[in-house]
Q: What sequence folds into this?
């Protein structure tokens, strides 16, 4: 069932690929979602204990991965708190053993519907030693941001990821993925949720990344805005990244 096609008029999910988010045709970025979409029954945290692999249908949700991805890409839980219409971006397949947990889509990704379709994504693929083909194969890489929708811009960079996404969707989604996976933790929001034994700062945690292997790799955000951090910490490029690529290659073999 995990590779079954999506049936029905669900936008945002490619019906020919169970994990890849399609750049679906939809409303203009500044248009308010229709009342019928906002009125659709939405999942709550109360669903989570039963909403895992092989669980029964809960409300409008299904335990099948394809249906779960469809539910995520049609979610409007935080629509009233977003500056643009909801457009959740996610990628996952049942065999994905590399899980990238970042922050939230930026404006360019919001417009294209393709995760990490920006300069940050290009840098991230170089850091991990992954080709575009490998990175966008949902049975190799799952892309699970802390916030699935573009949260809008702030004075410096983008707003933080919406807090509703991770508690609501991460647990059921990760339950469908292989247990022997590598989680690539990017940025402070993912760090705080998924690395309980983190150091006092992100820099210190990244510097001691070997402590979290083989299950996790902790990275700074690959945004061009972090160029100052990269310049200040040259050891990341010379010492850390070769070992990160080595671990990624072990997963790919």
A:
């Amino acid at each position: 069932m995990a590779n079954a096609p999506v049936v029905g008029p669900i936008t945002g999910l490619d019906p020919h690929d169970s994990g890849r988010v399609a750049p679906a045709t939809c409303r203009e970025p500044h248009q308010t979602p229709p009342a019928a979409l906002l009125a659709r029954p939405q999942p709550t945290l109360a669903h989570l204990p039963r909403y895992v692999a092989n669980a029964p249908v809960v409300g409008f949700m299904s335990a099948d991965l394809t249906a779960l991805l469809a539910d995520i890409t049609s979610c409007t839980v935080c629509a009233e708190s977003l500056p643009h219409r909801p457009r959740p971006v996610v990628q996952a397949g049942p065999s994905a053993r590399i899980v990238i947990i970042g922050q939230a889509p930026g404006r360019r990704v919001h417009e294209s519907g393709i995760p990490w379709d920006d300069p940050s994504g290009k840098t991230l693929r170089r850091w991990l030693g992954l080709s575009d083909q490998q990175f966008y194969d949902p049975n190799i890489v799952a892309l699970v941001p802390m916030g699935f929708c573009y949260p809008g811009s702030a004075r410096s960079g983008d707003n933080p990821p919406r807090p509703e996404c991770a508690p609501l969707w991460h647990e059921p989604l990760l339950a469908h993925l292989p247990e022997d996976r590598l989680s690539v933790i990017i940025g402070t929001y993912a760090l705080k949720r998924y690395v309980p034994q983190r150091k006092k700062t992100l820099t210190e945690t990244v510097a001691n990344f070997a402590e979290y292997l083989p299950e996790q790799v902790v990275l700074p955000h690959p945004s061009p805005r972090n160029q100052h951090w990269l310049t200040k910490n040259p050891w990341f490029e010379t010492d850390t990244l070769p070992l990160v690529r080595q671990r990624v290659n072990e997963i790919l073999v």
